[in-house]
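Co-fold these.
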Amino acid sequence: MEGESVTAIYALYSDPDHVQRAVDNLRAAGLHDRDIVVISSEPIEEYEFSARDKATWLFYAAGFGGVVGLVFATWLTTMTQKAWPIVTGNMAIVAWWPNMIIMFELTMLGAILATVITMLVAANLPKRGPKLYDPEVADGKILVGIENPPSTSVQSIERALLSGGVARLKKIGARP
Amino acid sequence: MQEEITRRISDDLLRPLVETSWRFWLLVAVLGSVVATGLATWFYQIYNGFGITGIRNPIYWAFYITNFVFWIGISHAGTLISAILRLVNAGWRRPVTRCAEVITVFALMIGALFPIIHLGRPWLFFWLMPYPSERQIWPNFRSPLVWDFFAITTYLTGSVLFLALPMIPDFALVRDKSTGWRRRVYAALSLGWQGTTKQWHRLESAMQIMAIAIIPVAVSVHTIVSFDFSMAPVPMWHSTIFGPYFVAGAIFSGIAALIVAMAAVRRFLHLEAYLHPVHFENLGKLLLMMSLLWAYFVFAERLTVWYGNESAEREVLLVTQRGSFAPLYWTMIVCNLVIPFVVLSLRKLRTIAGCVTASFTVLIGMWLERFLIVVPSLGHKYLPYSWGTYRPRPVEIIITISTFAAMMLLYTLFSKLVPIISIWELKVGEHPFAQETAAETGNHRLWKANP
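Predicted complex below.
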């Protein structure tokens, strides 16, 4: 039925081998990797389809957060010690040895917070209710789907998904 | 087959969330009333002042600071152990990590409460925070107590996030498996998690980075707690060994707490199929190693003091080994070294019951160790006319007992609201490590004896 309009179309698989085949078939049908959604209840590492989206800025973000924490701690300790220059235990007014403790803790805090914030942004969290999802994923099914497929390609996507292997096809928001 | 395993794991681990027996409510009621008694006692102390405690000149730090050091030490169980096991990708860690991480968060919360309980005017604790007061007076960053604030804040924030991030996929699972109000609550907690490949990669990368970051933070926290003592010119405190000595002791008591918690979870939540004897045996070996390391530090510390023969330090050494504190000292040695060494080094005794017994004694021994660091030194400072002794009053004893009840209560409530074993991580273990783990567990002599 060429020209059918749907919000999303997806299939549920039990076997990751079938998922790999379905993803390959979707690519062969002209779909880009960024359009193909694979959802599972656990990370699956051994397949090519799971290697997509692996590149991440998280490590750089953590480093950046650490540097921000370090700079802030350096400013906080030195600024406050100069603001009220009290001699304590014959230490220098700006006492680097104890300041290093604060600098270390805030560096790590900056790195940790930056990691978590970047992770949430990169994983698109939080969001109101998953758009493309099926509760059967919680039972171990693996979902392969396409959101907002062009109406002209719905049939070819269906074929690609079904030729992946034993699967149940589902559509969201189907309009004739 | 895989779906069957997935469903079984989900059903087993979600069961404690949906099934509630009268025993649970009884336990919550008992623990809750002990905690309430502790809180009431604290308010009584605030109202009447510190005079009702046994804290007197020269021993201003006693039970409360002992508890502070003890609980911060217990907090090393979780995040540190979990982070190390994650980094080395130890397959057997999967059922253990969350049990451990929860201990860290609650122990830190309880530990951080003690300096506040120890304040005469606890409502002014925010003076530790770096904020510009109306007279632009900032905290003195040269004070070890301010270092504590920063270290504990960083460790608590990191530990909460380290615990919370891997809970998101499990919240999504509970969302999908539940109905009504529970579904709405867990839907909010799951933040709209789908489980796309991108989300899994980001989560795993974030956990790797967090694991790398949290290890030095955990080490720094207990080192800084040790600085509270070693920065002071007090006999047997002013020592360079205190940093690593405290860290080793913290990991030691932390592992013991983890073993006890895991045994309780295994028994009361019927998770025998997930927390295997091999997990206890591995942790038991770790406990044995830490026991020997702890003994090494005690020996190194005591030998140096004895050989130095400095009069004030010698007094503290003698009063703990031969004087009024000797019964506590030798109980500590038996609990921390003799019993764990005998029980955990003999294969026959390294069962779940053996590991739990050794862990209980270690917890008692480590509390005594903290007490023996704090009190004898303060009671025997450099000038003999200032010597004194300490007797705890009911206030300190009740508050101390109530914190143990608080830990149990928080742990019980947590295991009721969140899967105490990370479900998705366990499922991953069924994939690449399935055969390896099964073989390791199935062929294990304790598994055969006690499946």
